[in-house]
Amino acid sequence: MFIAMNRFKIALGKEGDFVTIWRNRETHLNEVPGFREFHLLQGPSNEEHTLFASHSTWDSKEAFEAWTRSEAFRKAHANAGGSKGIYLGPPQFEGFEVIL
């Protein structure tokens, strides 16, 4: 099993806008072989930003990598650049192989 996470630093006061973007987007994940589940996580806030993370679980790293090369991935991320002022920099990807 493989877990893929992206960490997002979101501008203070823009948390609701960020959540709305994720609630309203078409993910196309259910079309992808090897996809298991997805969660959007809200973390702590500090004086600069609020931390969020997307968390998806896959059958394998290969299944996740196939998703990143798929038409479903392109469709899901087609409008990713249209949210100026919400994101404080690009997301930080972290991938994990499940050991136990």
Work out the helicity level.
10-25%
Poorly predicted regions are none
Number of E strands:
4
* Overall form: globular
Oligomer: single chain
Radius of gyration: 14 Å
User: Numbering strands along the chain, what is their spatial order in the largest sheet?
Assistant: 2-3-1-4
Largest sheet: 4 strands, antiparallel
H and E order:
EHEEHHE
What is the CATH class designation?
Alpha Beta
Number of helices: 3
Structural class: alpha+beta
Indicate the CATH topology: Alpha-Beta Plaits
CATH structural architecture: 2-Layer Sandwich
Cα separation of the termini = 10 Å
Which percent range describes the beta-strand content? 35-45%
Tally of separate domains: 1
Q: Mean pLDDT score, rounded?
A: 91
InterPro entries: ABM_dom, Dimeric_a/b-barrel, Heme-degrading_MO
GO molecular function: monooxygenase activity
Pfam family, one: ABM
Keywords: Monooxygenase, Oxidoreductase
Plain-language structure description:
This protein has one domain (2-97): Alpha-Beta Plaits. It is built from 3 helices and 4 strands. The chain has helices spanning 15-24, 61-68, 71-76; strands spanning 2-11, 35-45, 49-58, 92-97. It has a 4-stranded antiparallel β-sheet. It starts with a strand and ends with a strand. This is Antibiotic biosynthesis monooxygenase. Residues 2-96 form the ABM domain.
Which features does this protein show?
100 residues; 3 helices; single chain; Alpha-Beta Plaits; alpha+beta; 37% strand
Explain briefly what this protein structure is:
Helix content is 24%, strand content 37%. With 100 residues, the chain is an alpha+beta fold. Strand 2 (35-45) and strand 3 form a beta hairpin.
